[in-house]
Each structure stands twice: as C-alpha cells, then as structure tokens.
Write a structure and sequence with these properties.
Elements: H1 21-56, H2 80-95, E1 99-102, E2 107-109, H3 112-122, H4 128-157
Antiparallel strand pairs: 1-2
Length: 158
Amino acid sequence: MSEVVKAENSDVSYEKKDVNPRAILYIGISIIISAVIIHFAVWRLFDLFNAREVHMGKPPATLVNTKRQPPPAPRLQTDAPDDLQEMRLREKALLESYGWVDRQNGIAHIPIERAIALLIERGLPKTQQASENLTEKQMSVNTKSSISRTAEQERNQK
C-alpha cells in the first residue's frame, strides 16, 4: 500500500482566535435592552401628549379623518355588478311603464310590449315626405343603372 504523505509548511498558518463570542453576546443584549427602553419611552411620551390635549380640552388626535367628503365627480366605480344590475332595473322600469317625455308637446312613452303590439296592428306610419324621398331615391337609382347599362351596351357594340 502506498502511504499518504502530508506536506507541512511552517510559514503558512491560521489565526487561532477568530471571534470573541462574549463581546458579541454583550453587544446583542445591550441592543435589545436599548430597544425596549426606547419603545417604553416613546409610549410614555405619547401618553403624556394625549393627557396634555385632554387637559387642554381638545379631543385626542386620530390619524383617521372621520368627516371625509366624497371626492369630486366622476367617481370610481366601486361595485360594478351591483351598478349594472341597478342600471338594468331602471331601464326595464322605463321600458315597461307609461310616462311623459315632453308634456308640453304631448310626447309620451309607452311600454315596449304595447308599442310592438300597436306597430303590428297598425303598421309603420307613412308620411308624404317619406314617400317623396323614396321615389326620388328610386329615380336616382334607376337613372344610374340605366346609364351604366347604356355604357355597357356601347362597349359591347364596339
């Protein structure tokens, strides 16, 4: 078997004493004790401030403002599903009720089901102006189509 030979160098060494654990323990304990003393001192200071304000007749100050005013419009939507449901209920109530749109001019709204029934019963209203516009449109379409037909006929003849 072969022997393992360890090479030793007397010039290379390490520090025998790295850390003083007792000093680290004392520093840690003193930091904890200082923190506890500071916390109790601040707590006592705030108690003194509150006692002074009570003695002066003022209520203790709070960080929460209880008299908040709502922000100016437009506001953010906080509950979208409820807002949508409320809007649909308002629209449904409007579509299913009778009411005035413009009372002075005699314009009213009726329930949508009744309006559909009346439309089926009476048909769409016809006005003189609508029929005149329709005939003008038909004439312009007829003339355009006849012009295009004559242009095609001329091309075919050539």
